[in-house]
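Entry 12.
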Amino acid sequence: MSAHTTELVVFILLFALVSGMGFVAARWRRPTDLASLNEWGLGGRSFGSWITWFLVGGDLYTAYTFVAVPALVFSSGALGFYALPYTVVVYPLVFLVLARMWSVSHVHGFVTPADFVRARFGSPTLALVIAITGLVATMPYIALQLVGIEAVLKSMGITGHLPIIIAFAILAAYTYQSGLRAPALIAFVKDALIYIVILAAVIYIPAKLGGWGSIFDAAKAKFDATPAPNDGIILNANNQLQYITLAFGSALALFLYPHSLTGVLASKNRNVIKRNMSALPAYSFVLGLIALLGFMAIAAGTKPVTMNGKADTNTVVPMLFDQMFPDWFTGVAYAAIGIGALVPAAIMSIAAANLFTRNIYREYFNKNATDAQEARVSKVTSLVVKVGAVLCILLLDPQFSIDLQLIGGVIILQTLPSVALGLYTRWFHKGGLIAGWATGLAAGMWMLYLIPNPANGKLHFGGSAFGLSNLGFDTKMTIYAGFLALAVNLIVAVLGTLAFRAAKVADGDDATARHDYFADEGDPDVKDLDLAGSH
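Predicted 3D structure (tokens):
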């Protein structure tokens, strides 16, 4: 570890700086009282364009993105670039959806997507399954932020779990005190560091490696020499469908995650949402540069850290930085990854806590909970969620945590009919939506179970590429399991709705029907909005 002293000192100093900012955030844009979910969990719904830009960007582009996307490019090649089209496609898809969600939530005081589902379909049961789905999908995502920090620590020769426990104890403390204001303030530093590191990397590293031509030649030579049918610097007939459906399915899933909506609902008006959805694709440019780090690592001959005879590909980017940068700048790069874990982990834990408080605690344990009681329960729950994430790392193989997150993407997609389509139509019957959700989940789990990963010897849950041969087709083509599971969900939801309507089964009352949620601020239709909201 003595060889990494400079890196460690720089890392600790920057980590301490943002931790201090997390505690100071309680006084930033200080409200009269933090004892409500509107203030603690949504920052008073007062964030403007710049704060929302950094908050949502910091929420979506995480430490795991920083290490996992280039690691996938390093091991599989072109398939790893699926993250680029999906982060470009997603923003037009959600441009109107999120503006509408902001409006309905602003009017009624909704804090979570399950709040909306509860009011829209008049079904506490449907809201409960949406809330549980969000919780289950979010937990491994938080654990994966720890994987990003661990990759940095391993690259500095630090092993053991104590540093991770300390880092998340500090995170838990300032999130408990400051709520959403903490990651909103830290996100400025996180993004600034990432921009600096990536721009330096794409200029400095290729210059040392002989230019981009040499980098791509080295990557091609590596993949040409492997027996794997689906790797390479370009896609082939076997993985093109997987690439397309994985990109599109991931785009549909991204803003269904509770933490994505939390950043959006903290915005002060609809125009902030529209401006951000128009500008956030700029992050995809940076993501493309991050992905190219995988090819740079191949050309540089970077070797990932090996522990217990197993190579940890998540350490490829930190090891590349250590190999190519001066020690002091490597410390800055490591801090960018580490701090990149704190922002999304804080938002995710707040979102999960809000789900539990609003849709489980209040619905089933204390229907008359005051704002202060809700805030107190949410704070405690956010601590429990972080402890659970740490336990995932302590007790489980980190690779299993990655598999859990993969499963999480398939799971969260099953909320799309209730949440996203529910914003536009109430045609679906609550019974049909529940049936579709259950069937889609079952189909998704079945498909994931059948997917092996020969590279690490796993027979089940080895990835998201479902072979069409499992359905009787004579082909080596694969498709994203979540995409098929969502198709099953929608078909069953439609058929179930028709069946319930034919049987004249009563549906719930729609508490959102009387408002025009497309009305912009300043539009005459806004006079019809009950801005006092309802809780």
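Annotation: The first helix runs from residue 5 to 24. The CA atoms of residues 66 and 290 lie 7 Å apart.
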